[in-house]
Backbone:
């Protein structure tokens, strides 16, 4: 049984974040409602409802995520006619192609999508067994399927070095801030981001993506099939960051060097920008040396996607001299690298192990963070993945890029609930 977000949710978020199609949810109303709430939370700016959508019962007075609202009769007699009617009704309002996502309940009806008629509307059936997939697998499946249907034929490469960002999407904490950070770093080395697939790109940006020199897999576990499709159909190579997602200064530098090598350009300007930012933060930490030093030798736990967990784990051990207690990657993408590193530092037993006692730092999802903070104690809980609990993100909380470094360090140190008298020690006076 999958207790974490599954492939159905991943497919819906992929389709909605790409914005090229209407996502028709073939399922009960509750399946739509919860997903709509999440979408609203993940999109920070409000978009007014399209009043024309009141003309379709499938939209139910809201202009995002139409639904078939299946009931007992549909379970018995099938959902084919209702899906066909929904496609025609929805497309008549928006004019977009329709991607159809099946929930677990609808998949049990076994609708034959080959017989579905959209009355001239382009239909993209996402008819895999999504509920049995992980979130990342469903996300990648839907993104690859939609793009392979809608991307135009090859276009000429851009004259200047350019990339697309794959696997990074609206489900990432503070994705808008993280995206701006990554764009700025790449711009420093003369590389333009044509499209951040999954971060609400415009239609023009998506079309332009076929002219990129390189695809960067920010989170490879969420974009493997998508990257292969771009390589197969548009001859665009892809880069898998060897040290994981750009989380922490070293992994950011590593990714920039790989991009420079792949494109044949000098990454020094971008590396200098990272060094300058890291130096500023180091100055702050030195001024707060008691808070930083008290982490040395203490325990931490991480439960996150492997592409974030791997660099975060290395950063905690190599820079802050902390000891891993529980390391739980949610996918196998970087599992080999994680296992090898833990073995090299003598902590192989922490892999997939539950937490033991009280850790000083716990990196996890927003709900676990809220529960942990409510219980009190000295542990610092740091939110690194959904489901999120904070409503507004006005101060740039994200996990990737140099801004992500500031957020993670800030949460780590300011989240520890210990009394400090603030009196200077002999070292402070010296």
Residues:
């Amino acid at each position: 049984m999958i207790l974490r977000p599954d492939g159905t949710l991943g497919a819906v978020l992929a389709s909605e974040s790409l914005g090229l199609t209407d996502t028709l949810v073939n399922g009960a109303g509750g399946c739509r409602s919860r997903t709509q709430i999440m979408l609203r939370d993940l999109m920070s700016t409000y978009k007014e409802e399209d009043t024309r959508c009141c003309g379709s019962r499938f939209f139910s007075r809201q202009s995002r995520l139409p639904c078939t609202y299946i009931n007992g009769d549909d379970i018995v007699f099938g959902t084919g006619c209702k899906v066909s009617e929904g496609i025609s009704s929805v497309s008549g309002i928006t004019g977009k192609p329709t991607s159809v996502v099946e929930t677990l309940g609808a998949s049990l009806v076994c609708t034959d999508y080959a017989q579905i008629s959209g009355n001239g509307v382009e239909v993209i059936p996402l008819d895999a067994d999504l509920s049995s997939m992980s979130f990342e697998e469903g996300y990648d499946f839907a993104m690859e399927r939609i793009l392979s249907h809608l991307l135009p034929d090859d276009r000429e490469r851009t004259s200047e070095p350019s990339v697309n960002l794959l696997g990074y999407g609206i489900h990432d904490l503070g994705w808008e801030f993280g995206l701006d950070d990554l764009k700025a770093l790449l711009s420093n080395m003369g590389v333009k981001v044509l499209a951040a697939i999954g971060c609400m790109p415009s239609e023009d940006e998506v079309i332009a993506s076929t002219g990129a020199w390189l695809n960067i897999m920010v989170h490879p576990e969420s974009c493997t099939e998508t990257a292969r499709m771009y390589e197969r159909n548009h001859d665009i190579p892809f880069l898998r960051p060897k040290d994981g997602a750009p989380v922490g200064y070293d992994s950011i530098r590593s990714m920039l060097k790989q991009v420079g090598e792949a494109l044949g350009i000098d990454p020094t300007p971008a590396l200098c920008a990272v060094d300058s930012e890291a130096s500023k933060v180091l100055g702050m930490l030195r001024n707060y040396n008691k808070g930083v030093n008290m982490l040395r030798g203490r325990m931490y736990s991480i439960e996150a996607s492997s592409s974030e967990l791997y660099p975060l784990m290395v950063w905690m051990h190599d820079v802050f001299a902390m000891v891993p207690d529980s390391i739980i990657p949610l996918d196998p993408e970087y599992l080999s690298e994680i296992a090898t590193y833990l073995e090299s530092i003598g902590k192989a037993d922490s892999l997939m192990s539950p937490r033991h006692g009280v850790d000083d730092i716990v990196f996890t999802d927003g709900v676990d963070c809220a529960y942990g903070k409510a219980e009190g104690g000295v542990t610092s809980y740091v939110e690194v993945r959904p489901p999120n609990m904070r409503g507004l993100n006005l101060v740039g909380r994200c996990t990737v890029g140099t801004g992500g470094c500031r957020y993670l360090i800030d949460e780590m140190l300011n989240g520890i609930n210990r009394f400090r008298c603030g009196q200077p020690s002999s070292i402070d006076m010296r």
Summary: The chain has three domains: 7-150, 162-266, 273-414. The longest helix spans residues 268-287. The mean pLDDT is 88. The two ends are 58 Å apart (CA to CA).
